[in-house]
Amino acid sequence: MDNNQTFLNACRNGQKSIVQIFLKKGGIDINKRDQEGNTALYYACQKGYRDIVALLLDNDADASCINNRSESPLHAAARSGNKEILGKLLQKGVDINVTDNEGRTPLICLLDNKRTDAALFLMDQGADTEVADASGHKAIDYATAHGLREVVARLSCGNDRDARGNTPLHQAVYNGQGEIVRTLLLSDKSMLDSTNDGGETPLILACMQGNLVMVNLLLGTGADPGKAMLSGNAPIHYAAISGNRFIGEALLKAKAAVDAQNDNGETPLILAAKEGHNDFVSVLLEFHANVSISDNLQHTALYYAGERGFNEIVEKLLENGAE
């Protein structure tokens, strides 16, 4: 077998004594690549073999050599998250912000692999946290998606947005990460009522998903229960559509407008009646919803409940003065 391949395999398999034998004997290409373009150093970094990495670097292995995916040994080290290896590579002067063919930096790879300590180390060494990969995501996006609280606390800024205009708070709410939401709100409340490109606030997302815990957390921090999208749909409209009475109660107690109308003239009561949500209709009536309001088609909640055969809702509406 080719000695270069045997040497590369020894590095990949963590066989330190064999690596030492070949290095002592000499005559091998220490930067030999396999079919994927990976070198011995790449594999040693990927597997976290610190001693072998040190041996290779001491024998002038190329710390900047990239493979067929444009991944460097620094990217490989990001998989194992070994800070000592990362440090040794940086001492060799490698580019800390080198990107692979997907635009991912070593920092982004560390965060995607949930390596918090190593990511913080790389940030301390000057890694650029504002680089976006090919999908438009930055370090803060990966940290938020994976619930890495310490990194989020370090990076959080209301001005950070992904390709769709979502702030880190939008992302944390969408992913149902309560602890991350708390961390973000402690560091920067400017995101609380911010809208993404679709006009959605974090509270609207929470209502869309029917996440009562998140709704209470946002309202408790001061989220505006009445901030609506361009369509006129406010959080209470989405709560009415989903029929979650507990979210409805939380919004109404936070002074959401019980008779708010969207661009179609629909109130929460009309929407709840359309969907047949008996309990939600009851909540709205307890908060004195106007049963006589009609939408742009001049149809009331009673009309829709009757048309769709929701008899219990019809009875409740009639009992509350609907005609």
From TrEMBL:
It comes from Bacteroides stercoris. It comes from the Bacteria. SMART domains: ANK (SM00248). ANK repeats lie at residues 36-68, 69-101, 102-134, 164-185, 198-224, 231-263, 264-296, 297-323. Keywords: ANK repeat, Repeat. It holds the Pfam family Ank_2. This is Ankyrin repeat domain-containing protein.
